[in-house]
């Protein structure tokens, strides 16, 4: 009776006159692991179950099979909170098989956004054809170069060549082949044996070559999937101004390395912070022309090149950090103006941390920092918030890593920084957080890699110049660094680090008239 009350599956089994209702025991054979079934039985009698990383997937599958709806939903919720690029393809298949719509949507979005890093993984190579086809044909697949999509498809075909070769034309038809470089299309794709050995595949590539020549010769309107750009791609946005007052926003064109001006910031400010969530960039706080700390939040929409105001923060602040976590915005630390002081002077470094929900346009306070900081690097990774170094309340460089777990609403100090620092920059690349430059005791040209699972530090290729107060973002599994100072000299180059080769290169030169205040990676939508 207890089982029947918790599960429609058992209710049907025991009250529907089925054979099992008369048996002394029910054999599930190998469809359920005994430990998982034991957890479900315990839940039926106690209404409690501990979901963790080891059992969440099995509990979701069993909860769906045996129609323990609460278990299925709670397991899906746990997996949503622990979703990251390394497991999103597995979660995509799991959620699709068990109709978990929210987990499916989140996994799908993450797979589209991280295709560049996922396409060489074992999980990608094992994807069923229908899921690979969905990814490849998606208008929102995030890639800087369509060559990557073609090579990913060919890698997937070769992984199980005897069974997969026959579906090559279906996949090639959804690769934007006419967007590949002309020499690559002619010399690599058109001469590929797997393509030439397949009559239909050869025809698809020949058609793409004809489209490519039309494009190059401006020979009339070119239509068809093979020549249509995808509707979404990642964009780097640089915020700054001619002085420390931030009043301009620029978009960096990946292909030409041009820095293109966009709509001016409506309310100029200095020492503000910027963070991207989806297609929107949130600029929080800062000091206005009268030097007072601000609660204002301005939102830039990359789709319409427009600015709008959001709900103000609860605490006016400047010199703070901000980061995205689970589609929400967090602002951390900084200073606020001392009450009763004239002229306004900064307070000690703040402990207050605020959470903003874009859907509700609402701010709330969460647990405060263990130690107040300003000028710290703030990053969201693996469903946690990490704060590296900063200026402490007594104006010293802080040598600590502070970590916030939103599920527990609690801050911890899991480890120390390799050296005391502030004015550093940080960004996530894969499982690592890259921390670059800063005002340190030693060399500001050092670059450190922090593993977000093990909390271990290691050094990687030094940046091309010492940089204090630089800015960093990740795009396409590469790290981009801009701005900052080397002594009294401004760093004018925008540099890129490629982890696959462990090398740095300079991409372009930032105009000397632009002092970068913030650097974010967001989405831009393209017309069809």
Automatic annotation (TrEMBL):
Q: Which GO terms describe its biological process?
A: ubiquitin-dependent protein catabolic process
GO cellular component: a single term: Cul3-RING ubiquitin ligase complex
Keywords, alphabetical: Kelch repeat, Repeat
Q: Which domain of life is it from?
A: Eukaryota
What PROSITE patterns does its record include? BTB
SMART domains, alphabetized = BACK, BTB, Kelch
Q: Which SUPFAM superfamilies match?
A: Kelch motif, POZ domain
Please verify whether the record's keywords include Repeat.
yes
Task: Work out whether the entry's keyword set contains Repeat.
Answer: yes
Q: Where is the signal peptide?
A: none
Q: Which residue ranges does the record assign to the BTB domain? A: 1-53
**Listed CDD domains:** BACK_KLHL25_like (cd18464)
Classification via InterPro entries: BACK, BTB-kelch_protein, BTB/POZ_dom, Kelch-typ_b-propeller, Kelch_1, SKP1/BTB/POZ_sf
Family annotation (PANTHER family): ECTODERM NEURAL CORTEX PROTEIN 1 (PTHR24412:SF502), KELCH PROTEIN (PTHR24412)
Q: What is this protein called?
A: ENC1 protein
Q: What is the primary gene name for this protein?
A: Enc1_1
């Amino acid at each position: 009776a207890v089982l029947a009350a918790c599960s429609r599956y058992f209710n049907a089994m025991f009250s529907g006159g089925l054979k099992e209702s008369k048996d002394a025991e029910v054999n599930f054979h190998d469809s359920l692991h005994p430990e998982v079934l034991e957890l479900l039985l315990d839940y039926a009698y106690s209404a409690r179950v501990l979901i963790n990383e080891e059992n969440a997937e099995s509990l979701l599958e069993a909860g769906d099979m045996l129609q323990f709806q609460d278990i299925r939903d709670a397991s899906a919720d746990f997996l949503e909170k622990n979703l990251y690029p390394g497991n999103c393809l597995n979660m995509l298949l799991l959620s699709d098989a068990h109709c978990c719509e929210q987990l499916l949507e989140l996994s799908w979005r993450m797979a589209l956004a991280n295709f560049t890093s996922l396409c060489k993984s074992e999980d990608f190579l094992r994807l069923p054809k229908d899921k690979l086809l969905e990814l490849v044909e998606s208008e929102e697949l995030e890639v800087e170069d369509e060559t990557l999509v073609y090579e990913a498809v060919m890698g997937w075909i070769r992984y199980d060549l005897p069974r997969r070769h026959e579906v090559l034309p279906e996949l090639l038809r959804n690769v934007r082949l006419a967007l590949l470089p002309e020499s690559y299309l002619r010399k690599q794709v058109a001469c590929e044996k797997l393509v030439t050995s397949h009559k239909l595949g050869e025809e698809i590539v020949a058609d793409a070559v004809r489209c490519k020549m039309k494009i190059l010769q401006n020979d009339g309107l070119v239509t068809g999937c093979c020549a249509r750009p995808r509707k979404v791609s990642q964009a780097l946005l640089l915020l700054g101004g001619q002085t420390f007052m931030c009043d301009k926003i620029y978009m960096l064109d990946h292909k030409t390395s041009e820095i293109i001006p966009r709509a001016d910031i409506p309310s100029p400010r200095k020492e503000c912070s910027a963070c991207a969530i989806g297609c929107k960039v949130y600029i929080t706080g800062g000091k206005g022309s009268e030097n007072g700390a601000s609660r204002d939040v301005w939102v830039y929409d990359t789709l319409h090149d427009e600015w709008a105001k959001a709900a103000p923060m609860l605490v006016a602040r400047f010199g703070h950090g901000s980061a995205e976590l689970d589609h929400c915005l967090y602002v951390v630390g900084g200073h606020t103006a001392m009450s009763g002081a004239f002229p306004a002077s900064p307070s000690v470094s703040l402990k207050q941390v605020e959470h903003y929900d874009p859907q509700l346009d609402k701010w709330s306070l969460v647990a405060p920092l263990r130690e107040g900081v300003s000028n710290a690097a703030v990053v969201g990774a693996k469903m946690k918030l990490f704060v590296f170094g900063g200026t402490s309340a007594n104006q010293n460089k802080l040598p600590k890593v502070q970590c916030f777990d939103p599920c527990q609403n609690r801050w911890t100090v899991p480890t120390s920084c390799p050296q005391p620092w502030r004015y550093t920059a940080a960004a996530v690349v894969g499982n690592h957080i890259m921390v670059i430059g800063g005002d340190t005791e030693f060399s500001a040209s050092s670059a450190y890699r922090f593993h977000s699972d093990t909390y271990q530090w290691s050094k990687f290729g030094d940046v091309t110049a010492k940089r204090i107060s630089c800015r960093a973002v990740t795009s396409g599994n590469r790290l981009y660094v801009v701005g900052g100072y080397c002594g009294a000299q401004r760093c004018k180059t925008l540099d890129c680090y490629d982890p696959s080769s462990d090398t740095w290169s300079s991409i372009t030169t930032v105009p000397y008239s632009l002092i970068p205040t913030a650097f974010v990676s967001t989405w831009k939508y393209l017309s069809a």
